[in-house]
Each structure stands twice: as structure tokens, then as C-alpha cells.
């Protein structure tokens, strides 16, 4: 998708919506609503462009206020160092968020019921306090725009009797004309050649590190150390500067095409010069703008190496962000993806599941880098990206997980050594990536679910009690397809509680987090609640239970007492 945007195959609007979707922003959620940059102040048509190298928050508040906020909080954090009473809201930052829920409802005030606005914006309904025009809305808001102002004219029309429609700039005669103008401005050459700066600020490398401090773009949600969980935040998609869009491919009226070398009708050429230039360019019309004193004069602004530099920048970005070239799948990869191997269907499914588990486990540690590889990747593509990332940075996989990655994915082997086995093209997506050795270096057969769960043969660093915990669930538990949860029937509840009680002394805090949902489920069901209550009575003296009893089991205990 980056490749399509850089070479102007996709529109700016379409590409930004894809980035919003990758960042978890979607329509219908005010806390994670898609954002599009404001691109003009509406003072004049196709003029007075916004500075996209600065956030809207910075343009609205000013550098001085952001510096004062950051420096004062930074000095305050130094005094609080070593103490536990520092809240996340007082950590050094410049920007709180790119689109607050209040701003979202103000944007959509003319299409939102009055009671909803009173609940989220202000309890008292005062229509005069809402911005009356598009230009006033731009001046008031410290947040970015939303897609409706580029795509839906109804957002400008009011459904309230006492709140008039949003006033348009004087050169727009209708809401539809404004949306068309606004969309053309977004797709214009003036915006396209600077849009990569805004992407770096909103989704890219200027969200973290020294680049964020320099750009006055330190976001609170990225520096609060996840001390307070919430349903909003900022997600970084790219760790490298985003490539600039190819010039001369804007969609709007204000685009300026890259100068083309045309031959003037009366141009005098020096013998052979015209044919020579025409031979080099492959077009006899692409010759010197004029020839004077034996020199070929080129048009102003002509940069013959610009496209080559653009291509090099794109490859550099793709290589460092996803460790892959811009092309998604080469012809060789397509042929290898169609490869498969023979064998029984059950064996094929087992081995492929093991490789899927390996890819999912690796992606837990490579989430940010895997996101840059794109959406809807096949298993083979995911596997290749993981191997490229590991080859570029072996430290990206924790040391304790290397043995599991080696057993499941053979991650340290060269691509040729672990290439897919050849077979027919049919059903390639359901076949395994490669063939495991009959006996590996540990003297064990290919991985299976039972081998992964045994403490002696498992490559995963499972604790010693995990095998017994799994046995308890698999022996006594049943899956409720309607509820989507595991439950224990009454006939196995007593033995299950007895086994949990014996296992509890050897369980640490992580194991307790796995056990508590099972105990709560036993106490929640009418046919097993007495067994759960008896279990609680016998085990509440355990030291680890005292720390979780108030928050995890108190509500269930109250319900059990009432019954």
C-alpha cells in the first residue's frame, strides 16, 4: 500500500483511511475514530495551505505553550523520581491525543441528537457555543479533521431547529461543492508533496524518541507506561521516515505537473544533437528546451534524478520497516506458495498447525514490525517476514523463546534450507510450509500438540505445574459452543476442585490468573456452586489467595451467600 501511495496509484484519502484501519481507528468509535489532516484554513480557495510538518495541536496552541508544558512536567518528574504517587497525566508530553471525544461530537453536532451532545459536550444546551462556520471550526479545534468533511455533505446540515447549518466559505455555493473542493485540496500537489510529514507525526517515527521531542509531538498515551488502561490511545505504524509521494501526480486543480522537455517549433539544433538526445530518451520530442551557444538549456525545476531518488527512498523505507522490498509477492514466492507435500490429511493438519503456532508466537514479539508488512498475508508470507526480521535483528525474539522458534519454524536456517516442499498448486494454503526432520537435534520426532505440552519435551518455558493444569481442564472440562467458554459439569466438579486444591500450593501468580476464572465459573453455575464454595473455604488461607480474593472472588462469594 505504501508503494501504491508513493507512486500515486492510490488517492491520499484512500491511503490515509487504510492507515487509520491499521492503527485500529474505525467509524463508530469516538475514542478511535479515523482522522484526516486539515489541509487549509479556508481563507481563500486553493491557497493558505496548512503546515503539515506540525500537528494541529501545535499550530493551535503554539510552540511556547508546548515547551512550557513539557519542561515543567519534565522537571516535576525529576522531583518525583523514586516515588509511586506520580500519575500518568503528569508525565512530560506535548500532545494529549489527536482527536478527543469532545471534539468528535462538536464536529458532528449538527447530526447528533441533543441529549447525546449534552451528555458528552456540555450538560446545558447552548447552540451558540458550537462553531458556526467551517473556518471558525478550523480556528477553534486543536484536533485533526474527520473523513466526513471530505466525503459526506450531510455533516454540514443541521437537524436541530435552533442550531443552523455550518456556514461555508464564501466561494462555495452548496455543501456538495464544499466537500468536492475539500477533497480536491486533499488530493492536490501542494498537499501530496508534504503529506508524508503528517504521516510521520501521526503514525510514524516522530511519535517516539528524539524525533518526537524535536517535533514537539510527545504523546501522553505513549509515555504513560500503560499505568492506566483505557479504550483510547496512539499506535505507531512506522519506525522510519515515510517516503514522499511522487511529484507531479496530484489530483486537484492546483497541481503543477513536472516540466516536460518539449522541442520549440523554431529551435535550431546543432548537427546531430537532436538525434542524439532523441536516441537517449527514446522520444524525439524530448529534446532541449533551447540551444544557445552549443548548450542545451533545461526548464527551471527539472530534476532528472528525482524519480530515482524517490524509488531509492521507497526501497529504504520498505527494507527498514518490513525488511522486504515494496513488491508484495514475487513470481518465485507465488510458485513456492503453491507448493505442498503429500501425506495423510491428519498429519498435514498437525504439522501445519505447529507452524501456525510458531508464526503466532513470533508475531507476539514482532507486532509493530509485522504490521508494516501489510494486511491479509498468507502463512508463507508471514513466515518469510518473520525470518527476514530475525535475520536483520536476532534480538527481536526473546532468548527464552529461541528454542521454540527453532523447533517450530527453523528460524535460524537459511531460506533455501527451509523452503516449502514442491507439489501441486491445489490447496496450497492448507499445506505446511516445509517438512520437519524425522528426528531433530534433540532426538525427538516432529512437533505435535502432546510434545508441546509435556514439560520434558516442550520447547516452551512452561512452569512445572502447567501440565497438571492442562490435564485438569482437558479431563473435566467441556466446551459450551453457545457461550464460547469451558465449563465443568456437576459430575466432574468435585474431582476438579480436589485436583485444583492439590495443585494450588505449587502455583505462582501467573498460574493463579489461569485458575481463578475456572473457580469463578464453578461458583457461577447453580449445579456446581456448592463445590466452588467448599473449595474457597478450604483454600482461602493460602497466602496467594489473600491478594486476589477481594477483587476476584468477592462478588461471587456474595452471590453464593445470598443463594
Topology:
Blueprint (H helix, E strand, L loop, with lengths): L1 H5 L5 H11 L33 H6 L1 H18 L20 H7 L6 H7 L13 H7 L7 H4 L23 H12 L2 H4 L2 H8 L6 H6 L58 H9 L8 E3 L2 E3 L8 H17 L8 H7 L7 H21 L1 H5 L7 H14 L9 H8 L39 H5 L12 H11 L1 E3 L4 E3 L2 H14 L5 H16 L4 H11 L3 H20 L1
Antiparallel strand pairs: 1-2, 3-4
Distance, first to last CA:
58 Å
Shape: globular
Class inferred from helices and paired strands? mainly alpha
What radius of gyration results from the CA coordinates? 31 Å
Assembly type of the chains comes to single chain
| Main beta-sheet annotation | 2 strands, antiparallel
Query: Major sheet: order of its strands?
Result: 1-2
> Order of helices and strands, N to C?
HHHHHHHHHHHHHEEHHHHHHHHEEHHHH
Can you tell me the residue ranges where pLDDT is under 50 for at least 5 consecutive residues?
Answer: 79-88, 249-289, 328-332, 334-343, 422-428
Chain-averaged pLDDT: 75
Beta-strand residue percentage = under 5%
Q: What is the number of beta strands? A: 4
Please tally the helical runs, counting DSSP H or I stretches of 4 or more residues. Answer: 25
Give helix % range: 40-55%
Amino acid at each position: 500500500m505504501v508503494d501504491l501511495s508513493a507512486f500515486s496509484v492510490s488517492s491520499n484519502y484512500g491511503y490515509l483511511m487504510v492507515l487509520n484501519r491499521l492503527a485500529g481507528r474505525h467509524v463508530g468509535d469516538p475514542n478511535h475514530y479515523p482522522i484526516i489532516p486539515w489541509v487549509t484554513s479556508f481563507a481563500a480557495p486553493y491557497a493558505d495551505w496548512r503546515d503539515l510538518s506540525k500537528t494541529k495541536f501545535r499550530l493551535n496552541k503554539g510552540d511556547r505553550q508546548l515547551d512550557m508544558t513539557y519542561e515543567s512536567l519534565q522537571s516535576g518528574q525529576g522531583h518525583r523520581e523514586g516515588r509511586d504517587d506520580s500519575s500518568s497525566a503528569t508525565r512530560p508530553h506535548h500532545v494529549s491525543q489527536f482527536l478527543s471525544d469532545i471534539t468528535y461530537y462538536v464536529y458532528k453536532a449538527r447530526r447528533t441528537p441533543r441529549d447525546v451532545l449534552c451528555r458528552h459536550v456540555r450538560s446545558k444546551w447552548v447552540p451558540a457555543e458550537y462553531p458556526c462556520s467551517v473556518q471558525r471550526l478550523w480556528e477553534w479545534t486543536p484536533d485533526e479533521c474527520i473523513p466526513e468533511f471530505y466525503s459526506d455533505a450531510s455533516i454540514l446540515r443541521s437537524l436541530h431547529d435552533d442550531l443552523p447549518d455550518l456556514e461555508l466559505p464564501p466561494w462555495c455555493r452548496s455543501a456538495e461543492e464544499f466537500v468536492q473542493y475539500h477533497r480536491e485540496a486533499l488530493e492536490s500537489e501542494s498537499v501530496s508533496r508534504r503529506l508524508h510529514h503528517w504521516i510521520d507525526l501521526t503514525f510514524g517515527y516522530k511519535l517516539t524518541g528524539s524525533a518526537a521531542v524535536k517535533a514537539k509531538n510527545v504523546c501522553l498515551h505513549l509515555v504513560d507506561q500503560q499505568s492506566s488502561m483505557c479504550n483510547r490511545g496512539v499506535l505507531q505504524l512506522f519506525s522510519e521516515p515515510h517516503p514522499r509521494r511522487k511529484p507531479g501526480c496530484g489530483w486537484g486543480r492546483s497541481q503543477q505537473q513536472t516540466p516536460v522537455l518539449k522541442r520549440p517549433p523554431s529551435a535550431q539544433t546543432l548537427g546531430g544533437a537532436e538525434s542524439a538526445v532523441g536516441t537517449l530518451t527514446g522520444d524525439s520530442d524530448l529534446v532541449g528546451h533551447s540551444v544557445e551557444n552549443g548548450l542545451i538549456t533545461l526548464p527551471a525545476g527539472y530534476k532528472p534524478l528525482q524519480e530515482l531518488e524517490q524509488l531509492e527512498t521507497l526501497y529504504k523505507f520498505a527494507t527498514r520497516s518490513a525488511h522486504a522490498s515494496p513488491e508484495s509477492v514475487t513470481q518465485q514466492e507465488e510458485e513456492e506458495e503453491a507448493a505442498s507435500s503429500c501425506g495423510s490429511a491428519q498429519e498435514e493438519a498437525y504439522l501445519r498447525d505447529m507452524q501456525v503456532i510458531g508464526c503466532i508466537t513470533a508475531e507476539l514479539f514482532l507486532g509493530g514490525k509485522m504490521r508494516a508488512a501489510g494486511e491479509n498475508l498468507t502463512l508463507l508470507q508471514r513466515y518469510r517476514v518473520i525470518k527476514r526480521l530475525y535475520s536483520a535483528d536476532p534480538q527481536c525474539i526473546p532468548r527464552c523463546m529461541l528454542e521454540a522458534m527453532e523447533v517450530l519454524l527453523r528460524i535460524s536456517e537459511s531460506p533455501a534450507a527451509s523452503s516449502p516442499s514442491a507439489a501441486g498448486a491445489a490447496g496450497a494454503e492448507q499445506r505446511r510450509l516445509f517438512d520437519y526432520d524425522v528426528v531433530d537435534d534433540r532426538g525427538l520426532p516432529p512437533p505435535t500438540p502432546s510434545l508441546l505440552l509435556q514439560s520434558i519435551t516442550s520447547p516452551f518455558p512452561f512452569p512445572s505445574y502447567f501440565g497438571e493444569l492442562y490435564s485438569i481442564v482437558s479431563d473435566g472440562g467441556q466446551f459450551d459452543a453457545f457461550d464460547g467458554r469451558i465449563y465443568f459439569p456437576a459430575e466432574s466438579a468435585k474431582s476438579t476442585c480436589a485436583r485444583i486444591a492439590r495443585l494450588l500450593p505449587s502455583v505462582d501468580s501467573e498460574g493463579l490468573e489461569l485458575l481463578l476464572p475456572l473457580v469463578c465459573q464453578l461458583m457461577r453455575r447453580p449445579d456446581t456452586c456448592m463445590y466452588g464454595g467448599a473449595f474457597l473455604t478450604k483454600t482461602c488461607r493460602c497466602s496467594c489467595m489473600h491478594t486476589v480474593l477481594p477483587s476476584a472472588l468477592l462478588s461471587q462469594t456474595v452471590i453464593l451467600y445470598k443463594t
